[in-house]
Amino acid sequence: MPVAPNQYATSMLIRKLESIATLSDAERLAIEGLPVRINVLDARQDIVRDGDKPSHCCLVVDGWVCRYKLLDQGKRQIVSFHIAGDTPDLQSLHLHTMDHSLATVTNATLAFIPHEIMRDLTAEHPNLAALLWRDTLIDAAIFREWLTSIGRRSAFGHLAHLFCEMYLKQQAVGLAEGYRCPMPVRQVDLADALGLTSVHVNRVLQDMRAQNLVTLQGKTLVIDAWDELQRAAEFDPTYLHLEKRGSVNLRFGIATRMTVQRASASEHPSEGLSGLAGSQAERPVRDQKPSSRCHP
Question: Can you tell me the distance from the alpha carbon of 48 to that of 71, in angstroms, rounded to the nearest whole number?
Answer without folding.
Answer: 16
